[in-house]
Structures are given as C-alpha cells and as structure tokens.
Amino acid sequence: MFHVLHSSAGAGKTHALVKHYLQHCLRYEDRAAYRHVLALTFTNKAAAEMKERVMRYLELLSKKEWDDGPMADLLAHLKELSEVDEDTLSERADAVLGHMLHNWSDVAISTIDAFTRRVVQPFSRDLRLDHDLRMTTEQDHYLEAAVQALIEAAGSDERITRILTEACMQLLHGRSWGIPCALDGAEQGIAEGKLDTPLEKLRAFSVDELLL
Fold first, then answer.
1. How far is CA 34 from each of CA 96, 101, 116, 183, rounded to the nearest angstrom?
2. Across 39-128, where does the E strand assignment appear?
3. What integer pLDDT is reported at residue 179 of this predicted model?
4. For residue 74, which of 95, 56, 91 has the smallest C-alpha distance?
5. Alpha carbon of 93 to those of 57, 77, 103: distances in Å?
6. 124: which DSSP letter?
7. Based on the number of CB atoms within 10 Å of its own CB, is 6 exposed (0-12), middle (13-18) or buried (19 or more)?
8. Least confident of 3-12, 56-65, 202-211
9. What are the pLDDT digits (tens) for 54-106?
10. Is 193 helix (H, G, I), strand (E, B) or coil?
11. Distance of CA 41 to CAs 58, 77, 112, 113, Å?
12. How is residue 29 annotated by DSSP?
C-alpha cells in the first residue's frame, strides 16, 4: 500500500513522514522492527533531518514529553493505530531508541542514490561495474539544457518573452546582461533546495504582477 503526501514547503512533510515511520517501528513489541522499514528521500539534507527528527521524537516519547502540538499529534496517531496505552508506547520508544543507537547502521533512512548504491555494489563484479561504484545524475548537463530550452522559447511564448526581456533590461545595469550567466546561480540554488521558500512565495503572484 502506498500513501502519497502532497504539501508545500514548510507544511510539515517531515513530521508526517516521521509519524508514518514511527507507527511501523512502535506498532509491535519488537524493538528491532525498524530494521524492516525503509525510508527514502531525494537529498542528504532531507535524510539527515528525518533521522534527527526520528531520534528526537523517540526520546521525547520515552520521557513522556508529549504536551506540545507535534508530539500530541504523534501520540494520538500512535495510540489509535497500535491500540496501546501511553505507558506502553513510552516503554517501546525507549527500547527502540536504545536498539537504534547500538545498531545505527541498520537504520534504513537514506537517499535513493545511497540505497541504490548499497544494493548494487555487492554485485558490481557480476554487472561488470567499477567496484568503487559512484552515482551521478549529470546535473550540470540537464541544468544547461533547461536554461537553453527557456531561452529558445523566447519569441514564441509571450509570457517567457516578457519575463526574459524585463530580466535583460534589469541586467543592463549590472556587469553582464547575458541571461545564461544570470541564471547559472539560480539553477544551482534550485538544485540544492536553497530557493524553495522564495519560489514558493512567488507562486502567489501572476506574471503581470511580477512585471509591474
């Protein structure tokens, strides 16, 4: 069964994901149940954040510190699904937390790339691959292709033409008016997730409003 979560930046995706993850870890008495749960993310930053949140939630549950909003929501969710009382959940959280800390390599929260590498590497010789297997997405190639496609749309797409024309007018006051150079920093920021919040705010405006 697949559960698809749709939400924008800052809407609590990590909390929702960790809540679903912990329900599988604490639903049964087995303190090593987390070994049967796989959580995959797109970036190292997201994986690290999810791991940190899992450990923090388990610690708060073990100490029975669940008065704030996120923890209260988590506690209610776990009680409903596991059908056990708060004391039992606290004991299970403490047991799972201790087991995780002593078997950290078994906590399967990682990026898709890291998981694929972990699965494929033992068979690298059979697949005739380099033993020092490296994952690559040729990011620069696709970023350049995206910028080129945007520029080629100028003249045929009215909205893109207006935006690029206005961008060129503003760049004339700087050191360079070349659109590819100006977009280079932006494309890297998008790829690294540094512009998620500003871009999300821009969704509220139309093209006409942005060009005023």
1. 8, 12, 19, 43
2. 39-41, 109-111
3. 65
4. 56
5. 9, 14, 15
6. T
7. exposed
8. 3-12
9. 999 999 999 999 888 889 999 998 988 888 889 999 999 999 999 999 999 99
10. coil
11. 20, 23, 6, 9
12. S
Q: What distance lies between CA 30 and its chain's CA centroid?
A: 28
pLDDT per residue as tens digits for the range 113-135: 888 888 887 787 787 777 666 66
Question: What's the CA angle centered on 13, arms 15 and 107, to 5 degrees?
Answer: 60
Q: Please name the amino acid found at residue 133.
A: L
Burial of 54 (0-12, 13-18, 19+ CB in 10 A): buried
Q: Is the pTM of this model over 0.85?
A: no
Which residues, including other chains, have CB under 8 Å from residue 85's CB and lie 6 or more apart? 79
Contacts for 158 with CB less than 8 Å, ≥ 6 apart:
none
**Radius of gyration of the chain from its Cα atoms, rounded to whole angstroms:** 23
State the number of CA atoms in the 13 A half-sphere of 7 facing the CB: 12
Backbone torsions φ then ψ of 148, nearest 5 degrees: -65, -40
Q: What is the three-class DSSP state of 149?
A: helix
